Amino acid sequence: MEELGMERVKKEIIPEFAVEGTLEETVPYGSGHINDTFRLTCTLENGGQKRYILQRMNDDVFKNPVELMENVMNVTSYLRKKIVERGGDPDRETLNVIPTKTGDNFLKDERGDFWRMYLFIEDASSFDMVRTPEDFYNSAVAFGNFQLLLKDYPASTLHETILNFHNTVSRFSDFKKAVEEDVCGRAKEVPGEIRFVLEREADTHAICDALADGTIPLRVTHNDTKLNNVMIDNQTGKGICVIDLDTVMPGSALYDYGDSIRFGASTGAEDEKNLNLISCDLGLFETYTRGFVEGCGGSLTQEEIRMLPMGAKLMTLECGMRFLADYLQGDVYFKIHRPEHNLDRARTQFKLVADMEQKWDEMAAIVEKYL
């Protein structure tokens, strides 16, 4: 995607959307790495203010923005209805797409860029890091609640915005291909890491096979359940809205749960070089499990709950596979800030997987409490 000029955004893009009031300010916003995001502030006739989020969608990552926005519109419309039914505030508890002046859900500009706009969620914040166990618990309840609200949504009708995103069998196949091709000649430097993945091929089938044979249900999944994709109410500290619906697709609730554990229950940074600092914090594991199951409000099956530790392990293994494959391919997908950055990331994920394996019985016992 080419660089953006702020003047172009103000003159060519914003006037195409059905915003209320007079535009006063446009500023870059948030910490996302995929889309270009701006916050708009408009003054209303009564002197009040209304704010919006404008995004240029990254069609290098999301190849079909039309299908992506179809998913977003269908899911948010459904969520609005459910939120209203239970007496909630649909302007704050789900994303609200602002149409263009011609009534479309997105804008395709003359350069071929795709744009969308949302209502800004007021009096709420998102956080990049877990500050307290309560933050982690509240995000768990929010992602669980997302599952609960969408439990009857026909998941199979959603488009796959990134093909095989959490298909661990497919990811394993991609990893083996990267090892075999070894385009940068790096495989000889990392035989232990490669072996670590290859020895766990059977694990990569666990969720895919359970979905295929109906052991666990196909669900609407968020697929990027980091803490910063939950808006936390500034007054109550509760998670009120799940945002960033670009990867909403058919999948397993275990994907959403597992990715949160991978990210939030680790005792170290994703790219920590000192692996002695990396482990799975069982206190945080239990905190998130409790919140997620509570948020799901009885919508998870017994088998899904039993498989929660496998969700945590597999999402961590998958991420490590992807980091290592990218390292072998010359760091073409994930942004790096130093040589071997992707290798460091892969090693932290594998250390976390190994630690989970050592704590497997304890993780299973924690999960058993919530059956």
Automatic annotation (TrEMBL):
Top-level division of the source organism's lineage: Bacteria
Entries under Pfam families matching the protein: APH
Residue intervals of the Aminoglycoside phosphotransferase domain: 27-264
Family matches, as InterPro entries: Aminoglycoside_PTrfase, Kinase-like_dom_sf, Pseudomonas-type_ThrB
Name this protein carries in UniProt: Aminoglycoside phosphotransferase family protein
Source species of the chain: Candidatus Eisenbergiella pullistercoris
Phylogenetic placement of the source organism: Bacteria, Bacillati, Bacillota, Clostridia, Lachnospirales
